[in-house]
Amino acid sequence: MNTEIIHVWNTMNDRLTNFVNGKVKDTELTKDIVQDVFLKVFTKFETLKNKEKLIAWIYQITRNEIVSHFRKLKYNESSDNIDSEDLHEDTLTSELTSCLSPFINSLPDKYKQAIILADIENIPQKEIAKLLNISYSGTKSRVQRGREMLKSAYEDCCIISTDVYGDVIDYKEKKCKKKCD
Fold first, then answer.
1. Domain 3-80, what fold?
2. Is the pTM here over 0.85, yes or no?
3. What's the fold here for domain 86-173?
4. CA–CA dist 61, 40 (Å, integer)
């Protein structure tokens, strides 16, 4: 390994720890994030084009890891509360949202997985491509096809009218074989 990066890491470790702890306010979580940064710095060092910007690059990785943590936290909090009273507002959109789960679960696995990762977990499609070990264009196609299949399944059971913002303004159930429980 490059001795320069080891030296820079040793001198920056305390500063990074303080930086991260100032953002997340949890010492154990701070250690985890700094360790993740450490791993990325050492595994991705060869991708750094301008070695003079090493410190700025390390801080950018650190900021990205902090943002990633808060995204995961936001997703976990929202998925933990998915059945809570908050989602059961008296809006038509929320009424129909509660019916989505059976439709998503009825999709073929590869499309269901793509829809969940892209639209529920809000993971960028480039990251999904890496997770699923498929090309970026393949991921885009899979997500798009999954959305089309989901829309088609929904339209088989419901007539939905939306406003210009995509909010449901009216819907009417069709008589279909599928149940929206």
1. Rna Polymerase Sigma Factor; Chain: A (1.10.1740)
2. no
3. Arc Repressor Mutant, subunit A (1.10.10)
4. 8
